[in-house]
Amino acid sequence: MLLPKGGLNWKAARAQLPPARMLWNLVTRTRFLLLVALTGIVLLLWRGISSSASEMQSFYCWGPSTPPIDMSQNEYARWNAHMQTPVVFNHHAPLKVDSESIKHVDLNPVKSTRKAVVNEEKILIVTPLKDAAPYLSKYFELLAELTYPHHLIDLAFLVSDSKDDTLAVLSSELDRIQKRPDHIPFRSAMVVEKDFDFHLSQSVEERHSFEAQGPRRKAMGKARNYLLSAALKPEHSWVYWRDVDIVDSPPKILEDFIAHDKDILVPSRTSTLRCSAITLANTVAQTSGFTDTRMELTLKGDSTTTPGSSRIRVAN
């Protein structure tokens, strides 16, 4: 290939181009314009034929070239075999709720199983308090010994009609135990105050007297209802009611209760007296034998029993 002396440059390339007038004459010739028009028409016809062919392919008839009325059962089945018409029954568009005053709580994921520790099931320990200042130190001592993971335990207390320093002692004990640097602090703690204007001596004789049982247990029921309604959260799998005056309990008491895998579990103490009387502590199970057998129920605190006892006497 021969190149001009000095290499390629714009002036040399421009000299090789035909004059602009010659190009204009070529473009404006009738023969050239006719060629361009024919080329455009051919392209338009080709595109039209291609699209028509694809549309015709979409409406290709399946089955034999026979009217449906003349088809056999097998031919009719093959003819309809390709049909897969989607059907939607009772379709409802999703409802979007934007109101901030509406809250949705799904309790389906919350389970109560024997594998509570593995599943990290949360436990709520609830304790009603009244004039309980002398018992709180021992209460928290036993609570700290629980072997169930403390980061899965919530504490809740209701202080009502107290004349002593229950609230202050409770607050001090909670603050002390929750500030510990080890694994003892619990997941959370709640203190609820609610007075019911019920005042009763803390002496065993008066607390367990027959006359005091109705008002006393009514106030206890109210306190438990208020405490549970305030403290129970959707994430809680178990609720453990614990008295404040317990002096001893096994560290694995929660695991022992959970192992039974029952909806309601009540520990009881029974003993037999004179081979004819059964003593139960705050627990009566109404079974078929209970209703079929003629029995005499002695209420707690009856004048015929010792203070604090509960008896079901079999009267055969």
Topology diagram in text:
Layout: H1 10-16, H2 20-27, H3 30-58, H4 73-80, E1 122-129, H5 136-144, E2 153-159, H6 166-178, E3 188-193, H7 204-207, H8 210-231, E4 236-241, H9 253-260, E5 270-273, E6 277-280, H10 288-292, E7 295-298, E8 311-314
Parallel strand pairs: 1-2, 1-4, 2-3
Antiparallel strand pairs: 5-6, 6-8, 7-8
Detailed description of the structure:
By secondary structure, the chain is of the alpha/beta class. Helix content is 36%, strand content 14%. The chain is built from ten helices and eight strands. The chain has helices at 10-16, 20-27, 30-58, 73-80, 136-144, 166-178, 204-207, 210-231, 253-260, 288-292, and strands spanning 122-129, 153-159, 188-193, 236-241, 270-273, 277-280, 295-298, 311-314. The strands form two sheets. Strands 3-2-1-4 form a four-stranded parallel sheet, with helices on both faces. Helix 5 links the parallel strand 1 and strand 2 (153-159). Helix 5 (136-144) runs parallel beside helix 6 (166-178). The N and C termini lie far apart (132 Å). Residues 300-316 have low confidence and may be disordered. The chain crosses the membrane at residues 32-49. Belongs to the ANP1/MMN9/VAN1 family. InterPro entries: Mannan_Polymerase_Subunit, Nucleotide-diphossugar_trans.
Gyration radius, in Å: 45 Å
Structural class: alpha/beta
- Discrete helix count: 10
Percentage of residues in helical conformation:
25-40%
